[in-house]
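Q: What changes when copper (II) ion is included in the input?
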Amino acid sequence: MTTVTYSIPNISCGHCVHTIQSEVSDLAGVVSVSADQTARTATITFDVPATEEQIKSLLAEINYPAAN
Ligand SMILES: [Cu+2]
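A: The predicted holo structure follows.
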């Protein structure tokens, strides 16, 4: 199990938080997603088959690219 906190500059409101949490948690292997509107971060815990590469490409696809 891996937990990574991504910096996501595009987070601007509660809707962004909701979108990120619901989209990323649909990915197989993702255990939890906690996005923070003030810090503009998302802390994601995942295990196989999810990979960091997959998570980052999904974030980019939904218009919330990670800065790290
Ligand atoms: Cu928003």
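Observations recorded in class: The two ends are 19 Å apart (CA to CA).
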